[in-house]
Please model this.
Amino acid sequence: MNNAFYFLLDTVFNLYLMVVLLRIWLQASRADFYNPLSQFVVKATNPLLVPLRRLLPSIGKLDTGAVVLALLVSAVKMLLIQLLLAGQFNLLAIFTGAVVTAVKETFSLLFWVLIIRAIMSWFSQGRNPMELVLMQLTEPLLAPVRKVIPPMGGLDLSVLIVLVALQFLQILLQSFFIGLL
Model:
């Protein structure tokens, strides 16, 4: 029974964490906030984000309120999971787990956005509003790769190269965090 509750907690918190992280990414990339995906993200995050913004001003492009919200969502997830599985909690483990969870979900979000954009490019001709916002999010990562390795015969390898680099970084950070713990 604990496994079912763990699955539910993990899924719900990770999905909302991805929405918060997407909000940070949309703002940092100055993506179109009138896009339907952007509007969903804004409406889903505003109830918790607006009060935090009153306390924490933005630092340049970085929305500190959204970053704190992402860490809070991760921390609440870690707290509830510790209470569910162990019946007690450890503040250091919650803090460390919150940071690790936020970083892990950032990589996961980046992976899925790149995959969705690549798949959509096979079928769409660039007129889809979802494809436009995905392009605004991923183009800053893909354009430098295209400068080094241009598309060959109509095949753009930039997504593949960024995905391999992303996996490399994820494994590197994972070994770093395991070494810390």
